[in-house]
Amino acid sequence: MPRLIAICGATGNQGGSVAKLLLQHPDVYRVRALTRDPQSAPARRLAELGAEVVRADLTVPSDLHEALRGCWGVFGVTNFYDSKIKDDPSSEERQGKNLVDAALANGVQCFVWSTLPSSHAISGGRLVSQIYEGKYHVDDYIRAKGCPAVFLYTGNFYENMVFRSHMRYNRELDRVEFHQAIIKETTQLAMLYVQKDLGAVTKAVFDHWDVRKHSLNHQYLYCANARLTPLDILACVKKLTGKDGAYHALPTTGVPDRDIMFHLYNEAGMYGTKALPDENVRALGVHMHGIDDFVREVLAPHLGLPLL
């Protein structure tokens, strides 16, 4: 019988990547897509693909206890762009803990949690971002409660160049312009092609859980294929499209906590000296995709640029 997987943020980037991949394997998995708005266009599209779409608000524990009923697995993520978190950063930690409590109450066998390390530990207490700390504190809660789980450290998303309008083609100047808050042109960011790889890593964890759960339980998997600077990304765009580029670091995101996160990237990078791709991800049989793949498949078409 296919195993039922509850997916948080199923209409977004991370959860959507997991939902869409699992829906391609109906003989193995059933998808319960959790969303605050089951009538949204993305939610309706998931229903058309075969997902069970359920209304659930991570801030409401009773919603989650019902939404996770009968589930074998969970993909858990909180969205720091959510207005509830933007207006109250501590909400992210509460949402994550609510999800863990519901998973434990329903006997969930495999909880996959999208997370980040402690910014306090990385910076020695100088650059503390609640975006980081909220997720990190949920990690501690998962371990303390004995929830069977795998932690996914996600990279910076290639998709943000499109979804956040970081990159545009200036036809008048015939060049690509890359605008991003605070990040220096030489800062190396661990990068993730979410739509290709996050779902693949999550599915691999679910696929291997029965055989490898003793080694996978509470393991950290680094979901990123390489470290790249903004200049590296522009160099790839030029290689594949022939267009020159210019990078502009904007002074602020407009949200203080996100600004701290980006200053942390400038100072400490992402994930220290961890080799990417992660050997533990490769051991699960996952091939991570890179910037060339993203430019060819998504960015160049989005910018209206033909490939060379």
TrEMBL record:
GO CC terms of this entry: nucleus
Domain NmrA-like intervals: 4-255
Signal peptide (from-to): none
Keywords: NADP
Family: Belongs to the NmrA-type oxidoreductase family.
UniProt-recorded name of the protein: NAD-P-binding protein
Native source species: Trametes versicolor (strain FP-101664)
Taxonomic placement: Eukaryota, Fungi, Dikarya, Basidiomycota, Agaricomycotina
